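Researcher: I'd like a structural prediction for the single chain below. Treat it as a standalone chain; there are no partners to consider.
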Amino acid sequence: MNRLLPSSLFALILLTCASVHAEKADADKPTNVEADQMTYDDVKQINTFIGNVHLTRGTMTMNAAKVVVTQDPSGYQIATLYAAPGGLANFRRKRDGGPDLWVEGEGERIEYDSKTEIAKLFTRAKVRRLDGKKVTDEAAGEFISYDSRSEFFTVNNAANGTSVPNGGRIKVIIQPHSTTPKP
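Model: Treating it as a single chain, here is the predicted structure.
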């Protein structure tokens, strides 16, 4: 067990240091939502979308059974995605740094803050980085925080964002990166 801890920490450090930039142009795009129904509270600036919700903003897509979007006075939005019972909410977003680099994630609940560009994934959380359709790195745990601006992941074994003794394990898979150019 003591040998697994250094290996896990090393893998997490490698994942943390890897590039995970979100496409910067997404921040200036409008948010489009399709759903079965919507309620809007103008005073509180809260939109609630229910039923097969599909949200897009630039290259970012989000899918969930229910999405609650709140807007602050500056116009920034916080979207909270809720999965259907037994299911998972998900997102996918293009990353800067190449023509076909992506990050995608899933969890029973996802909170995304457009101001900080931080996604928090709760319960059965998983984040994958892709080059085209090839998974280059993957992290799984009960809680994942993904900061696309600072290129930082946090993976914890408890859904409240902490790691607790005997609370289960997180899992990180890092694929070897080729140093030879593609033909």
